Amino acid sequence: MKNILSTLAAGLALAVLLAAAPKPALAGDNHGDLMIRGVVTGVLPDTDATVKLNGSRIPGAGADVSDEVIPAMTISYFFTDNIAVELFCCFAKHSIDATGSIAALGEIGDTWIFPPALTAQYHFNPDGTFKPYVGVGMQYIAFFDEDSKLGPGTSSAIDDGLGFTLQAGLDVAVGNGWYLNADVKKTWLNTNARWGGTGVTADVDLDPLIVSAGFGYRFNLSDLLGGHDTTAPTAT
């Protein structure tokens, strides 16, 4: 609970900073070509792991990667009112727990992840208040600072992975370029983990569900660069 409250506080602080940004130099535009969102995100792995000892599968053994709530950001560039690309990024720390026949081991490791996702999007109803969208793309998950909990002299390493991502979301215009946002992404991704000094390995399907809610601000990139071109992207 403490971690979740800290995360929400960080997200609120980000919201205050963006809301306090000077407006004249960066005028909001509901048809601008750039949108930045600050969101609170739940990273919810749907873990399925095959655990082996010295190459032989341990019957009934599995592993589970923890759910985490974190602050995150997205940047979307609109080629037209309907077509955009989005980059999602964040950092998260997850614990890894033994399950099934080895559940008595409890937590067997933890790791930090950097999981950027790049999606191509189609946005519906560009002139309306409620603007649903769908997306498809890829997510890369980099694992770092892995730590083994299997005792002194052990270590852990997890391979980075690349997965296929589907996305659906909704932007709600609230005026002057500001939006509320809700978004769901599903990624299918496999990785391999090793615990050095133990002979334990795991083939892991992570398949995370990534659920986000927050706010966004849409404007023209030319304003950010010092110009004042108000030409809107052409609707398709």
From TrEMBL:
Any one biological process term the GO annotation gives: transmembrane transport
One Gene Ontology cellular component annotation held by this UniProt entry: outer membrane
Q: Report which residue ranges the record marks as coiled coil.
A: none
Query: What keywords appear on the UniProt entry?
Result: Signal
Spell out where the chain crosses the membrane.
none
Q: Matching Pfam families, A to Z?
A: OmpW
User: Which positions carry the signal peptide feature in this UniProt record?
Assistant: 1-27
Q: Which Gene3D superfamilies match?
A: 2.40.160.20
Please state which protein family the record places this protein in.
Belongs to the OmpW/AlkL family.
User: What is the name of the protein in this document?
Assistant: OmpW family protein
Q: What is the lineage of its organism?
A: Bacteria, Pseudomonadati, Pseudomonadota, Alphaproteobacteria, Hyphomicrobiales
